[in-house]
From TrEMBL:
<dbReference type="GO" id="GO:0004735">
    <property type="term" value="F:pyrroline-5-carboxylate reductase activity"/>
</dbReference>
<dbReference type="InterPro" id="IPR029036">
    <property type="entry name" value="P5CR_dimer"/>
</dbReference>
<dbReference type="InterPro" id="IPR008927">
    <property type="entry name" value="6-PGluconate_DH-like_C_sf"/>
</dbReference>
<dbReference type="InterPro" id="IPR000304">
    <property type="entry name" value="Pyrroline-COOH_reductase"/>
</dbReference>
<protein>
    <recommendedName>
        <fullName>Pyrroline-5-carboxylate reductase</fullName>
        <ecNumber>1.5.1.2</ecNumber>
    </recommendedName>
</protein>
<feature type="domain" description="Pyrroline-5-carboxylate reductase catalytic N-terminal">
    <location>
        <begin position="2"/>
        <end position="94"/>
    </location>
</feature>
<feature type="domain" description="Pyrroline-5-carboxylate reductase dimerisation">
    <location>
        <begin position="158"/>
        <end position="262"/>
    </location>
</feature>
<dbReference type="GO" id="GO:0055129">
    <property type="term" value="P:L-proline biosynthetic process"/>
</dbReference>
<dbReference type="Pfam" id="PF03807">
    <property type="entry name" value="F420_oxidored"/>
</dbReference>
<keyword id="KW-0028">Amino-acid biosynthesis</keyword>
<keyword id="KW-0641">Proline biosynthesis</keyword>
<dbReference type="GO" id="GO:0005737">
    <property type="term" value="C:cytoplasm"/>
</dbReference>
<keyword id="KW-0521">NADP</keyword>
<comment type="pathway">
    <text>Amino-acid biosynthesis; L-proline biosynthesis; L-proline from L-glutamate 5-semialdehyde: step 1/1.</text>
</comment>
<dbReference type="InterPro" id="IPR036291">
    <property type="entry name" value="NAD(P)-bd_dom_sf"/>
</dbReference>
<dbReference type="InterPro" id="IPR028939">
    <property type="entry name" value="P5C_Rdtase_cat_N"/>
</dbReference>
<comment type="similarity">
    <text>Belongs to the pyrroline-5-carboxylate reductase family.</text>
</comment>
């Protein structure tokens, strides 16, 4: 199976890198990139050929559209005369519904909407998958198998994709933001930056592993660290005092609203 990634930005490159690490051969992968310097850099780095959109559509079994939502119109214009019911189009464009692709591409073109995240780069992505009206169960399984090679996959109704975009798609950025703040706190307390970073990054890795493998609710895990009258409860009190929980709720809700806005821009 040949896979072409249309748009080799951060998420497109993450998919290429993840597929290669998962065992895909470079000759089974293609990508498109409008900047020649960037295309040459990626070909040198990964050994994958950079091609034009028309060539990708002709040669690939699966076309993964990974451009920014605001750049989708010229891509759809170009694809409209090149794809059809025999092509499988996978959209990784935040906020854009499958109905947009189905409306702009030839009748019967199968489309699957995916919301991945950047941990795909290290084989630890969380990808939410939703089939369009023309995608078959077999084609959905093809997308699941493709994405399973770079992380975990969940199939959801498309009506939930905007929430997924806010929670999972943007989620790594929130964790990075918190880790950055905690490293700064370590520096404030007198630790060298390198030491603070090592401590917090490993704490994050360990906490994530406990969440993933331990089977316990996050509340129970937090309570296990929070001794009566101890240091942690004092820290938690300050987080609650400053409304960190409410701020996270508002941030994720705002991201969801922006995902909805991106889709509405392309409504008829």
């Amino acid at each position: 199976m040949t896979v072409a990634v249309l748009g080799a930005g951060k998420i497109g490159e993450a998919l290429l890198s993840g597929l290669l690490h998962a065992g895909y051969a470079p000759e089974d992968l293609l990508f498109t990139e409008r900047h020649p310097e960037r295309a040459a850099e990626l070909t040198e780095r990964y050994g994958v050929a950079g091609v034009e959109v028309a060539d990708a559509a002709k040669r690939a079994d699966v076309l993964v559209v990974a451009v920014k939502p605001q750049d989708i119109d010229p891509v759809l214009d170009e694809l409209s005369g090149l794809v059809g019911p025999c092509s499988l189009v996978v959209s990784m464009c935040a906020g854009l519904p499958t109905s947009l692709f189905e409306r702009r591409l030839p009748e019967g073109t199968p489309v699957v909407r995916v919301m991945p995240n950047t941990p795909m780069l290290v084989g630890a992505a969380m990808s939410a998958v939703s089939p369009g009206k023309h995608a078959t169960d077999e084609q959905l399984r093809t997308v699941e198998e493709l994405l399973s090679s770079v992380g975990k996959v969940i199939v959801l109704p498309e009506s939930q994709q905007d929430a997924v975009t806010a929670l999972s798609g943007s989620g790594p950025a929130y964790f990075f933001y918190l880790v950055e703040a905690m490293i700064d706190a370590g520096i404030l307390l007198g630790l060298p930056r390198a030491v603070a970073q090592q401590l917090i990054v490993q704490a994050a890795v360990g906490a994530g592993k406990m969440l993933d493998e331990g089977g316990q609710h996050p509340v129970m895990l937090r309570e296990n660290v929070t001794s009566p009258g101890g240091t942690t409860i004092n820290g938690i009190r300050e987080l609650e005092k400053h409304g960190v929980r409410a701020a996270l709720l508002d941030a994720i809700e705002s991201a969801r609203d922006r995902s909805i806005e991106l889709g509405k821009v392309h409504e008829e």
